[in-house]
Amino acid sequence: MTAAVVGHTAGQEVFGGVDSHTDTLHIAVISDNGGHLADAEFPTTAAGYTAGLAFLNAHGHVLAIGVEGTASYGTGFTREARACGHRVVEVNRPDRAERRRIGKSDPIDAYAAARAALSGRASSAPKDDTVAGIRALHNAARSAVKARTAALNQIGQLLITAPEAVRTRYGRLKTAERTDALARQRPAGDAVHTAVLTALKSLARRVKELTAEHQALTKALDAEVTAHNPGLRAAYGVGPDTAAQLLVTAGGNPERLRTEAAFAALCGAAPVPASSGRTNRHRLSRGGDRAANAALYRIALCRMSGDRRTRDYVTRQTEAGRTKKEIIRLLKRAIAREIFRCLTTNVAVPEIADLRPARQAKNITLTAVANHFGVWPATISTLERGLRRDDDLANAYREWLTTA
């Protein structure tokens, strides 16, 4: 541990700043008027966290600690500091202009984090650990999809340059049929044919294994998301992947998001003022969490495809002269408002477990129900199993079953 200490008064109010790295933490202390008091380096271990907090407490009453990387390298220190009752705020890295002006080093970044906590520029509470399991499952599931896509692309590229007999036999098959056929085949022929078929068989088996892995992870992720926030999972168009991404973006303590406008800005779905002089306009936000923005986009597309209210809204906006891109932007902003309500309040999810037993007790088929309501049988099936939320249809379905 190294330290540089400046004279200070015992019992004064101070602010801390932490620059976190893989193996070390650099901690700085400033007074409540911004004066530099001390800085020191500690290891990223349990003992290092304890020593770092003792170092901060030795300089006075700690009002707040600004930490860079509360969800990465600074996670352990953040957890320990909050357990000890300290107020921790999340600090973004200094902007490039400031970094060019004053340079970069661990002490400089630690003091900058402390000043951010003092000035109020950094005021957001860090995310807690309640969604750590959802984050882990979500990352693993996406990794499986990425690896599966890479293997499928490799199969396609190999077939382009494969011997004519191999390309003719497997090149025209659809993706699932091709994968099954390649996984079953036994490499034979000359050296080139055997090598190519062996590679294709290995890739096909990899695709099948990754598909099964992704299905298992998605099932586990769905259970975790539903248990954590059933209202969010039940919202129309919100599947396991999009719900997990939105929960990871908001964190397990969504009270850190003060307003729904702040959540929309976090997701990059809030229009940014771009007015000047006589010009009064807004532009598209290109900041925020782009993965959360993509989740809102997928929800919007799903609702445009199957939700009656959304389709009527799209029709009205199209007649008003708006383009499809503009309509999707409006929808994402409205969806962000709904998602914020699901994240910050307990949204009641209507019970649908009684629908299927009631239908089966009267020997009514899915097809008969679907024909009565003018929908596909799959729509009724997913509604009964809780995979689709449509409160109006569920209520009408229940009333119809009562009188049928």
Automatic annotation (TrEMBL):
Q: Name one GO biological process term.
A: DNA transposition
GO MF terms on file? DNA binding; transposase activity
Domain Transposase IS110-like N-terminal: from-to ranges? 17-159
Q: Where would I find the Transposase IS116/IS110/IS902 C-terminal domain in this sequence?
A: 235-314
Please, which domain of life does this record's source organism belong to?
Answer: Bacteria
Q: Extract the PANTHER family matched here.
A: TRANSPOSASE FOR INSERTION SEQUENCE ELEMENT IS1111A, TRANSPOSASE FOR INSERTION SEQUENCE ELEMENT IS1547
Q: Which NCBIfam families match?
A: transpos_IS110
Q: What is this protein called?
A: IS110 family transposase
